[in-house]
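Q:
My hope is that you can spare some time for a protein that puzzles me. I hope you can help me see how the letters and the tokens relate. Thank you; the sequence and its tokens follow:
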Amino acid sequence: MTSQTSKTILVFDVDGTLTAARQQITPEMREFLIETRKRVPLAVVGGSDFKKITEQLAGHDKDLLLSLFDYVFAENGLLGFKGTEPYPVQSIQKAIGDDKLQELINFSLRYMSEIRLPVKRGNFVEFRNGMINLSPIGRSCSQEERNQFVIFDRENGIRQKFAEELRKNFGKYGLQFAIGGQISVDVFPTGWDKTFCLQYIQNHFDIIHFFGDKTAPGGNDHEIFADERTIGHTVEGPEDTKKQVEEVLGEGL
């Protein structure tokens, strides 16, 4: 690796960027990453937990996942690795306390119980290390039901209204609310968005390119996309990611 490329890193979102939403990476995209990494270091940052990211990018094989990237960040970087070495794990309950967490969860369950959707399933509240993931339809929905909700949400602004209510009631606790993936709202302490991972790489690289699909305000890629430490790229799916990476590489980074 030349000294030129050693000062540049490419950072990727997962859903809608390296994979179709909640789907596994294709062999072609994985091979593309392997070839790209021969030229420039790579990092991945997802809002999902480490298990889900491993499932999507490496078929449950942790060692394979860590071999594909120089840095791997789950839950926006609250759990992360440099190579195979883990960083300290952060915890939302330590940050804001269980009393406020329970107040948030109780409010969310009441709010979601009054939403009428085409279908509802289970797992409406998922507790992660660094965030609470709230899903009005429930994370145990099928792929077909997920696709149906995406259309319904686009037409009715279900998650947008939910996030606004959460912000109005719980913003005072130093929490942020972002529309995550296709079916949920992510809740996390202020500053614990995807920019959290930048502290681990900003001193090692002069140029940080970020690629993500939810880069508009309110999306969970927006903060890192707009951060002054990164060069942000909005992508429309894995094929577009490949195209834009090739353009960046073609410009000599």
Observations:
- The chain has two domains: 5-90+193-250, 92-189.
- The first helix runs from residue 27 to 37.
- The radius of gyration is 18 Å.
- The chain is about 35% helix and 20% strand.
